[in-house]
Amino acid sequence: MVGPKVRASIDPDPVLQAPKNRMCPNDPAAQVRRTHASRSAIRRVALVLAVTLAATACANPAPPRDDRRGGDRPEHRAGDGPRERPLRDFAAQPYPSTYVPLPRHDTLIRGATVLDGTGRRLEATDVLLHDGVVAAIGPGLDAPSGVEVVDAAGRWVTPGIVDPHSHLGNFPTPYTAEDAQHSDVNEDSDPNTAQVWAQHSVNVQDPGFSRAIAGGVTTVQVMPGSTNLFGGRTVVLRTVPAPTVQGMMFPDAPFGLKMACGENVVHAYGDSGRFPVSRMGAVAGQRAAWIAARKYLHDWRRVAAGEEHRPPEPDLKLDTLAGVLTGDVRVHAHCYRADDIAGLFGMAREFEFKITAIHHATEAYKIPELFVREGACAAVWSDWWGYKREAYDAIRENAAFLDAAGGCVAMHSDSGIVGQRLNIEAAKAMAAGARAGVRVAPERAIEWITRNPARMLGLGDRIGSLEPGKVADVVVWSGDPFSIYSHADRVYVDGALAYDRKDPAHQPLSDFELGQPSLERRP
Amino acid sequence: MTRVVVICGLLAACAVAGAGAAFAQSSSTTTALVHARLYTMQDNRPLENATVVIRAGKVQALGPGLAPPADARVIDVEGRIVTPGLMSAGSQLALVEVGSLADTRDHSVASGALGAAFDVQYALNANTAMLDLALSDGLTRAITHPEGSPVAPFLGQGALLRLGPGDTLLERSRVAMYVRVGGGAAAGAGGSRSASWSLLRNALEEARRFRPTTGAGSPRDQLLGRLDAEALQPVVTGRMPLAIVADRESDIRQVLSLHDDTRVPGILYGGAEAWRVAKELAARRIPVVIDPTLNLPASFDAMGARLDNAALLHEAGVRVAFAVSAFFRTYNAGSGMRLGAGLAVANGLPWIEGLRAMTSTPASIFGLSDHYGAVRVGVDADLVVWDGDPLEPSTSALRVWARGVEVSVENTRQHALAQRYSPLRKADVPPAYRR
Questions:
Q1: Contact A335/A356 with Cβ under 8 angstroms?
Q2: Is the N end or the C end of chain A the one with fewer CB atoms within 10 Å?
Q3: Buried b (16+ CB within 10 A) or exposed e, B351-366
Q4: Which residues in chain B are closer than 8 Å to A177, comparing Cβ atoms?
């Protein structure tokens, strides 16, 4: 059951990289180099722990970082030669986060049943939130003066839920006649729109954000839709509403690239006689794009190495794909069928990039060994199926079977309704596993909606579990989070109370819903 | 009631009501479930330590501590919850195999003469994989309804299904006439919901004036075709309810005035804002079939959607049943509905009402309470033994009886796939050779 835990983007460039054991997907070194010097010492400790765990889990640990690192980042190029220049930063963020945590004060949550997201279940346990991070976790903690004490006896505490596949904001409610004409979720003007960024489509007034946080969701990855071979870049948001998308963006979250295989692409284009009209066309379209991206990266590398003085014309589309090839942009691929998924894994090997996660993956259970070998996560529903041909073989045991094989599983929503209840998605998936003889304990299943999706987003070192030094994204549940009757009573984001079921002052309401007559209760 | 039943059982002299057993293979055997926590739906509280005797497809006797008949096959359910088989008040079961594939989908017509006359009964497919899964989730009855027709605002006529073994899927056709109004549905009426209401009122009026002998030569100013006018006869004579799909309060108020003007019995479907009109709906005894998971304004029509819709409606005295969103009308029709019921209960609906909304309430709305919906002597033996609280999504049906015959909850395509790929199974041969 000790599967690949630490996710990292492996530098795929064969020239710049020593051979590595592809059987072990863990690349703690890559994870380390992602960290910024400004991170807290405590966080570094947590990272080292994670690295240690990963190394233990891997029979052939990756070579030391110094042997592996050729240098895509400026800091690694220093001193290599006077003519050399930093490689173009394909993952530069010209529209960075302006998110500021809500006002907060230190909080001690007392006496809860804690599922900490690292596989532990702790009874009658206290959690101390200090200055936006988890300061301590354990029984009978002292209450520092001035701390707010929340009596959580009989209640459960988990990390904030992470939804790795959301369309909040870019497929917002209400759905209108205008959305039927042209939606903001798919730039379906061309099968390759790797140049578009989901962050430029987010309507922050989507009432769905307020529902998500009421369901204990603190972080979402908003994806472009699936009509395109390359749908564009994803964006990671806090569910704390703000008037701008930058105000909701998770600071310094890595970019993702949405890819898609199968029916949606073929229908979106093939139905009107455009390329691709078939699955083989879809794969050919993706391979051609990677060839172009490889050349683009190569050209920029020649410039960086001083071998070429005229830089290529900057290209937003190729920037995204080159960012994947350098390991700076994480691949999230929409794919259902086992054969299609295996095709994508093959493509990743051919062009030497890493697939972070297959989304939907309704047939992951047919090829768990491939997921484990490739170190890819599967982001799945508990039971969606039947609405299209490629979802015909979905089974409810999917998550549990993949988990049992050592694969990395996350529950995802793809829906503003399901996204309010990822805990129940996990509950259903657990129950299905148990009926099939594959038991998954609650302290393990909670990872499907906390730690694993956090890692998928490249944020596993910051969120997804309750450990000293980690960001204080915390949910206090009225009871067992896997029961339909339980509610998220209190939701903390960055240590600040962002939702309180009992207090309207801590319940966000979108501008869209403000003052709507139909929402008022008549006397 | 309980006492009478017990006496009846003790005397072992209860007549089997409704002779003509559904299943020959079961008619000779008697089965007794013992030690059940039985929710009969006749009472808010369960019968503890209950026995249910099944014979000839019917419930022959029941009561707490009742000794099973000597010839009965006794099944000890060990204190587990037993309920009636569940009923979906709004599915598209047996009409859709794969939602995206038009050639496997019969729930709507896009062109042609049929509007009100579009009747789904001739398309029902008893071999769809969706039915086995629904049955294994404890669903033994379902309304299956049309989705659209070219004659606005009509969708067509729905049917009542009974799930289970045998060639008896269609229990009753033409159970309701479906109509949709609202922002998204107005296009078919020319662009305004006002036109939808005018067309509906006109259709009812034309149907009222319609005479079969003159049907073929209708006056030129009649909009309805002969088939549609005929199809509306049971509606205008009060024998078939008008099931109106509408979410916005203004449309729900139109449902009320149409009811007041025509006295046509109505059922409200959707009803995202029904809680705002709860008292008025209750006063007219108009039941509401809601999607209990809806708490987002999916459209402007559903601006007032909220999770305590069911609770508020029930509080006002409205009969509530469930039809979970489009996604669960075919696949997961049973489990999706149970999740919705649990959610309604988590948001204020009394637990027993959550269960009623999946059993006795839809039975009463669609007129099958005489043989389904509660557990009492003489009704069809549709029973489910649950491995926990049936309103918890993590609970599953352990055993299911449909009209007295036990059906295997493992008899699904999904189960076969899970068996084939189970990690507990030795993968010594390729999957295609694993049976």
A1: no
A2: C
A3: bbbbbbbbbbbbbbbb
A4: 183-184
Quickly tell me which residue has 């979108």 as its tokens.
A510
Structure ipTM: 0.92
Domains with residue ranges and CATH for chain B: 2-84+380-415 (2.30.40.10), 86-365 (3.20.20.140)
Query: What DSSP string runs through A163-217?
Result: EEEE-TTTSPSSP-HHHHHS-SS--TTSSB-TT-BGGGS--TT-THHHHHHHTTE
Q: Which two tokens stand for residue B27?
A: 């008619």
pLDDT band at B214 (very low <50, low <70, confident <90, very high): low
Give the pTM: 0.89
How far CA B314 is from CA of B230, B324, B336, in Å, comes to 36, 18, 21
Chain B residues whose CB is inside 8 A of the A416 CB are 296
Nearest by Cα to A380 from A425, A424, A446, A330:
A425
Q: Which of A298, A420, A272, A286 is nearest to A340 (CA)?
A: A286
Q: How many CB atoms sit inside 10 A of residue A60's CB?
A: 12
One-letter amino acid of B257: S
H or E element in which residue B281 lies:
helix B278-283
3-state DSSP assignment of residue B173: strand
Q: Which of B297, B343, B421 sits opposite A207 (nearest CB)?
A: B297
pLDDT digits (tens, 9 = 90+) for A120-168: 999 999 999 999 999 999 999 999 999 999 999 999 999 999 999 999 9
Q: What is the pLDDT of residue A83?
A: 73
Q: Using alpha carbons, select from A445, A218, A483, A259 the residue that is nearest to residue A360.
A: A259
- Gap between the Cα atoms of B169 and B243, Å rounded: 22
pLDDT exceeds cutoff 50 at A304: yes
The sign one gets for the Cα dihedral A295, A301, A306, A309 is positive
* Helix-helix angle B333-346:A422-435, to 10 degrees: 130
Q: For A342-407, list the strands marked E by DSSP.
A: 355-360, 377-380
Q: Which positions ≥6 away from B131 have C-beta within 8 Å?
A: B93, B94, B163, B169
The DSSP-derived string for A43-104 is: HHHHHHHHHHHHHHH-SSPPPPHHHH----SHHHHTTS-TT--PPP-TT--SS-----PPP-
Residue whose tokens read 């929710």: B39
Beta strand segments in A223-328, E = 230-238, 255-260
3-state secondary structure of A218: strand
Q: What is the pLDDT of residues A266-303, one digit of tens each?
A: 999 999 999 999 999 999 999 999 999 999 999 999 99
Among B98, B346, B418, select the one facing A397 at the smallest CB separation.
Answer: B418
Structure tokens at B105: 């989908």
pLDDT at A13: 30
Mean of per-residue pLDDT scores for chain A: 87
Query: Which residue of B96, B252, B392, B395 is the best one to mutate when testing the A interface, meaning the one whose CB has the most A CBs within 10 A?
Result: B392
Let me know: does B314 contact B320? Beta carbons within 8 Å. Answer: yes
Q: What is the mean pLDDT of chain B?
A: 91
Q: How many CB atoms lie within 10 A of CB B43?
A: 12
Which among A42, A145, A6 has a CA at the least distance from the CA of A472?
A: A42
Q: What is the pLDDT of residue B219?
A: 61
Note whether A167 and A414 are within 8 A (CB): yes
CA distance B291 to chain A (A): 11
| Residue A281 tokens, joined | 């066309």
